[in-house]
Design brief:
Helices cover about 15% and strands about 25% of the residues. By secondary structure, it is of the alpha+beta class. The chain has a domain of about 170 residues.
Length: about 250
């Protein structure tokens, strides 16, 4: 026999569960903002360290989210470290689970262990925050923020942090987002000599010809490759060669 009172059904009424979900979605549409959500595509996943050094972002989806922060950004904020000035602004955004599944196809969510997709927000995905025009990275996904109202879960809480670009490929079709790669990427192919049809000039060994004006300092203000390269011309200094073609140096 049932242990709870069978005259009351508080956790299995699908109509009331749907009503609460509809009210949450309507509230987010009224009080939330529209962001561009970008699922991460894994290219070369390292199964030992659980990371991908060749990640790319090929799709951007508009979806409404609610900002839970009321007093400003959380996190460590702006501070000086031994690596220079770091910006670690964080915030928490709420998105309805049903709306996420409606707007973002499951096969385009971050695949894990060669599966078609995880069909939920994933750590490592990006989103464009429209109020300051900056890109944030999803650091943690809480799926039990509102604890089983009427027996179901209706929302995801995304803890996001200001994204630090690390030479990922951005081909979302949104100009303001894709411009980040063009501005900060250290990929030599952006300086490749092209023919009239847009194809690159290749060498016999399969390499490509780059503009002689290319230097890593153009995209990385902290790089000193040219400085060290000029120092190696002085035999009395005995500097190690730190050029782009020899990043680990030799005597």
């Amino acid at each position: 026999m049932p242990l709870t009172n069978f005259y009351f059904n508080n956790f299995q009424n699908s109509m009331e569960q749907r009503l609460i979900e509809d009210l949450i979605i309507e509230s987010i549409k009224i009080y939330g903002i529209e962001v561009c959500y970008m699922p991460r595509t894994l290219v070369k996943e390292d199964m030992l360290f659980g990371e991908d050094v060749l990640s790319k972002f090929e799709h951007a989806y508009g979806i409404e989210m609610y900002i839970k922060n009321v007093d400003g950004f959380a996190g460590d904020g702006d501070f000086l470290s031994k690596f220079g000035l770091e910006l670690r602004d964080q915030m928490v955004l709420t998105v309805a689970q049903r709306r996420f599944h409606e707007e973002i196809p499951a096969d385009r969510t971050t695949p894990w262990n060669e599966t078609p997709g995880i069909d939920r927000p994933s750590e490592g995905d990006l989103l464009m925050f429209p109020l300051n025009g900056k890109i944030f990275e999803v650091k943690f996904v809480e799926h039990e923020a509102i604890f089983y109202q009427m027996g179901t879960l209706q929302t995801y809480d995304l803890t996001v942090e200001l994204w630090e670009y690390s030479h990922e490929q951005l081909n979302t079709g949104i100009e303001v987002i894709d411009a980040v790669e063009e501005r900060y990427s250290g990929d030599k192919q952006f300086y490749q000599l092209l023919m009239e049809d847009g194809s690159g000039l290749q060498l016999e060994d399969g390499g490509y010809i780059t503009n002689e004006g290319y230097a890593i300092e153009l995209t990385d203000n902290q790089a000193n490759n040219q400085y060290f390269a000029t120092q190696t011309t002085d035999p009395d200094l005995n500097f190690i060669d730190w050029s782009e073609s020899n990043p680990f140096g030799d005597l």
